[in-house]
Specification:
The complex is a heterodimer of chains A (379) and B (79).
Chain A (H helix, E strand, L loop, with lengths): L1 E6 L3 H13 L1 H5 L3 E7 L3 E3 L3 H6 L9 E3 L8 E5 L2 E5 L4 E4 L4 E3 L2 E4 L3 E3 L7 H4 L6 H13 L3 E7 L8 H16 L5 E6 L9 H14 L2 E3 L4 E5 L4 E4 L4 E3 L2 E5 L2 E3 L1 H6 L23 E3 L12 H19 L12 E6 L5 E6 L12 H17 L5
Parallel strand pairs in A: 1-2, 1-9, 2-5, 9-19, 11-12, 11-17, 12-13
Antiparallel strand pairs in A: 3-4, 6-7, 7-8, 10-18, 14-15, 15-16, 20-21
Chain B lengths: L7 E4 L8 H11 L5 E6 L4 H12 L2 E7 L4 E6 L3
Parallel strand pairs in B: 1-2
Antiparallel strand pairs in B: 2-4, 3-4
The chains are: A alpha/beta (379), B alpha+beta (79).
Chain lengths: 379, 79
């Protein structure tokens, strides 16, 4: 019996486990293969939902389901916390002292926002990158009557378009409430345009102008003074704020750092095409856990899952495992509360702009429901 | 230029988001002072964007070399 262990119950891990179990059903029934998914949480959360929670467009519960309800026949789920990955000896050590050996490992441990990397951030800023933060921000937005809202971004972070979505949704949220004229919105960004993706930056520039959203480029947060309510950049500029909303820097998972297999930020060195951990033949890495310079997003994990699942099945069946990830990413972008667009690109295809439409907004809302099929390995 | 010792190389060729400059900013945050980071970018805009940011942020621009279809841009962490 050969065991495939998948560490991490987020988008990438759950999708890989389900798709393997579907496609290897005969092997699993014969006892030739075991698919084990290890996750820390009993619940699975659709993280893009946090954006809607922050604006009270939907309750958090809409985006949370029991992990076991999402797993297909053939996936063995262990709700455990892994302390160490021993890639030399093909084993995982768990918090309760148990060891699990594997023939193949898929690392799907994700990226994790931290408010600890910038002085004063935890005390002085709001965010929407965790369930708790989204709820806290929802309540703050509901109670603020006027003032200056400053939005900032630290690196690295997942879902690079979320900050723009947040800004445009904030503008419409305040307009719908009839209080937009009581607020100043200032959007700051680390590089010299409104977004990394040039077509997205070009699309949003006139939107910002039309909506009266101010912006500052080359703004990398250096420190926050939570008492005086001032944010300063390492480039030397600063803003006083009434409400500060930050996309905080992310780190790799603690188990990656503690196992000594990550880079300085805890991300796993990964081959950009094969998605194998560098220096390893039987360890694959998916989604935010990689050190690849591509978008950390559920969509990335979705496309990477194709490559990893196909190669694992081929290896198990004695076929050449030569399928390569082409760098494909596809992201919806909410352009407010009623319109959306999308962007798609790969290692060889640069991103192209798509006109925002109400239809795409509804498709995005529909995808929020379709996700539950997707993560079951059906799409 | 050939004598500059590179401490870390970021191969950001063919990547668009977060992009070469964001990758550089991320890497500089955890790099030791005075270390030299080389970014490989297939985006011609990097050859102008990166030096502009390096100047604004107080780091040191080392060189920019155009290769066959991409640029190698080196920066020394100065603060």
């Amino acid at each position: 019996m050969r065991r495939i262990a998948i560490l991490g119950g987020g988008v990438g891990g759950t999708m890989v486990a389900n798709r393997l179990a579907r496609e290897l059903r005969s092997d699993i029934d014969r006892g030739d293969v075991e698919v084990v998914l290890i996750g820390e949480d009993a619940n699975h959360t659709y993280q893009p939902g946090f954006l809607y929670v922050a604006f009270n467009q939907a309750p958090l519960e809409r985006f949370v389901r029991p992990q076991t309800s999402l797993l297909v026949y053939g996936v063995r789920f262990l709700q455990m916390r892994a302390l160490r990955i021993d890639a030399d000896n093909n084993s995982l050590l768990f918090e309760n002292g148990d060891l699990l050996t594997y023939d193949y490992l898929v690392i799907a441990t994700g990226s994790h926002p931290t408010m600890d990397t910038v002085a004063g951030l935890k005390e002085g800023a709001y965010s929407f990158y965790t369930a708790d933060q989204a709820i806290r921000l929802r309540d703050a937005l509901a109670n603020i009557a006027s003032g200056r809202i400053v939005i900032g971004v630290d690196v690295p972070h997942k879902c690079p378009v979320a900050v723009l979505e947040f800004t445009l949704m904030l503008d419409e949220y305040l307009r719908k409430r009839g209080t937009r004229d009581q607020f100043e919105i200032i959007y700051t960004y680390p590089i010299g345009r409104l977004h990394s993706l040039i077509p997205v930056a070009n699309w949003v520039e006139p939107e910002f102008e039309r909506r009266g959203i101010q912006s500052e480029f080359f703004f990398n947060v250096d420190n926050v003074d939570p008492d005086k309510k001032i944010i300063e950049s390492l480039e030397g500029s600063s803003y006083a704020y009434d409400l500060l909303v930050m996309v905080p820097a992310h780190r790799g998972a603690k188990v990656i750092i503690d196992s000594g297999i990550g880079d300085e930020s805890g991300f796993v060195p990964t081959d950009r095409y094969s998605l194998r951990m560098k220096g390893s033949h039987n360890v694959f890495v998916i989604g935010d856990a990689t050190d690849l310079p591509i978008s950390k997003a559920g969509s990335t994990a979705h496309y990477e899952a194709d490559t990893i699942v196909t190669n694992l099945i081929d290896e198990l069946h004695g076929l050449p495992a030569d399928h390569q990830y082409d760098g494909k990413v596809y992201c919806f972008i909410e352009g407010g509360l009623e319109k959306a667009t999308y962007i798609a690109f790969s290692y060889t295809e640069p991103p192209k702009p798509t006109a925002p439409s109400e239809l795409l907004h509804w498709f995005k809302l529909m995808y929020n429901e379709i996700y539950w099929l997707s993560v079951r390995g059906l799409l | 230029m050939s004598q500059v010792a590179i401490d870390k190389t970021i191969d950001a060729r063919g990547t668009y988001c977060p992009g070469p400059l964001m990758e550089l900013i991320k890497t500089l945050k955890t790099a030791p002072l005075q270390s030299v980071i080389e970014v490989w970018s297939s985006d011609s805009g990097s050859a102008t964007d990166i030096p502009v940011w390096v100047k604004k942020s107080g780091h040191e621009f080392v060189y920019s070399i155009e290769e066959n279809g991409y640029w190698r841009i080196a920066i020394r962490k100065a603060r």
